[in-house]
Amino acid sequence: MSRIAYVNGRYLDQRLAEVNIEDRGYQFGDGIYEVVHLFQGRFVDEDRHLARLERSLAEIRLPMPMPRAALRHVLLEVARRNRVTEGLLYMQVTRGVARRDHAFPARPVPPALVVTIRRIPPYPRDIDRWAIACISHPDLRWARRDIKSVNLLPNVLARQAAREQGAAEAILYEEATGLVTEGAATTFWIVDEHGVIRTRHLDHAILPGCTRGALVAELRDAGIGFVEREFSLAEMRRAREAFITSATSFVKPVTRIDGTPVGDGRVGPVTRRLFDLFARHVKGNAG
């Protein structure tokens, strides 16, 4: 069956879907995107993702392409037309089509909206097979990383560096301070040498991850202590455990960084517990 995309008001065979060459997303990366996990026909953390979309758009002074209820209908319709019940849905909003000029169009143009979806494997059950290796990599991104912009070239280069070294993710750090920020496309967490769960506090240096936010809520509900505080590369290397979170990673153990084992090189007990905790969240706390 052909994949169906939504492009500016039309549902099209994805092979035939096109955007204008003067779309500002193509010309300048002038746009915002979101990725949402569809589990058994239900969008996981849908409200968090749509709220982050609205916030990111507001930060670059771009309106929502349609009311949230209408957008939700489009997302569900794309999933329905593609007969996908377990997948990843991608949506992108750009400033639209205008004559190439760095400044915003003198006359406002309609925002452009593209939505696609693809199937993914079933939710992971074996946490040990889910574990990955990472590398550390300088954070070369712009200063407003809290905005989920389509400008992802530094992230692309970091992920490629990881792949070339046989790893799955790059853990980014500020060269001037040696402080860890996040993964190239994930939130990064450690269980530090004292057994404390830690991830960087939210600010302009990192993206406010929706999976991060959902896990934080689950931790609080379960009475599990954690700290939102920056940590250095040196602290990372002394950590007992490490893991990443995202809409595609869920809770994913990191057992090696730069070729060196994290802790004893095996999935630790804290990460195992959080993997199970988040699995219940994805499944609607149905166990």
TrEMBL record:
Gene Ontology molecular function: D-alanine-2-oxoglutarate aminotransferase activity
Pfam families: Aminotran_4
Keywords for this protein: Amino-acid biosynthesis, Aminotransferase, Branched-chain amino acid biosynthesis, Transferase
Keyword match Repeat: no
Recorded catalytic activity of this chain's protein: L-isoleucine + 2-oxoglutarate = (S)-3-methyl-2-oxopentanoate + L-glutamate; L-leucine + 2-oxoglutarate = 4-methyl-2-oxopentanoate + L-glutamate; L-valine + 2-oxoglutarate = 3-methyl-2-oxobutanoate + L-glutamate
Enzyme class label: transferase
EC number from the UniProt entry: 2.6.1.42
Pathway: Amino-acid biosynthesis; L-isoleucine biosynthesis; L-isoleucine from 2-oxobutanoate: step 4/4; Amino-acid biosynthesis; L-leucine biosynthesis; L-leucine from 3-methyl-2-oxobutanoate: step 4/4; Amino-acid biosynthesis; L-valine biosynthesis; L-valine from pyruvate: step 4/4
Function statement: Acts on leucine, isoleucine and valine.
Family: Belongs to the class-IV pyridoxal-phosphate-dependent aminotransferase family.
Protein name stated in the entry: Probable branched-chain-amino-acid aminotransferase
Organism, scientific name: Paracraurococcus ruber
